[in-house]
Design goal:
This protein has 174 residues and is an alpha+beta fold. The chain has 6 helices and 7 strands; from the N terminus they run H-H-E-E-H-H-E-E-E-E-H-H-E. A hairpin with a 5-residue loop joins strand 4 and strand 5. The chain is globular, with a radius of gyration of 19 Å. 21% of the residues are buried. The N terminus is likely disordered.
């Protein structure tokens, strides 16, 4: 009878990791590192990760206080926008109505400007920052926004940020 709690835990774990037809569930695959064949380019420092957190689950996985004090992690997400001047920043969808500004450690590398809609895996630190109006306007200008859109930026913004020391660009054929 003492083995029953152990067997129950093993059974529940098995159910969590496998669906009825024996294939791994999307939840189990979501944290997997990309296969080498998926990576079409590496920018910045090379890295390998055992677990990769989907960017849109960052805010549901960690408390905002953990992120405020910087959180070292590896994330996978879809690129929304890239700096059209140099490729010196990008934005990633980070959950419902939340976007993450990604910059690159020591301004040491840039991303291709034509990767909007592509998936990336990035390693670095997530944190929150209050971004001043002049910096927000600068990013809007880099993104090719109109003068009217730029003029409407009048308040600083608390933003989720990521400082990447390495980024892997994934194949667009996935």
């Amino acid at each position: 009878m003492k083995k029953f709690p152990f067997l129950l835990c093993v059974g529940l774990l098995s159910l969590t990791l496998y669906t009825c037809d024996g294939t791994k569930s999307a939840v189990a695959n979501a944290n997997a590192a990309p296969a080498a064949s998926e990576v079409t380019g590496t920018y910045g420092a090379e890295f390998s990760a055992k677990e990769v957190l989907p960017a849109n689950r960052l805010l549901t996985t960690f408390d905002k206080n953990e992120i405020t004090d910087t959180l070292q992690t590896t994330l996978r997400g879809t690129v929304n926008e890239v700096c059209q001047a140099k490729g010196c920043w990008m934005t990633i969808a980070a959950g419902e109505r939340e976007e993450m500004m990604v910059k690159f450690k020591d301004y040491g590398f840039f991303m291709p400007k034509d990767i909007s809609g592509r998936e990336v895996v990035m390693h670095g630190m997530a944190y929150y920052q209050i971004t001043p109006v002049d910096e927000l306007r600068h990013y809007a200008e880099d993104a090719g926004k109109s003068a009217e859109e730029i003029a409407r930026i009048t308040e600083p913004k608390r933003e989720l940020r990521f400082l990447a020391d390495g980024v892997q660009l994934l194949s667009s054929d996935l």
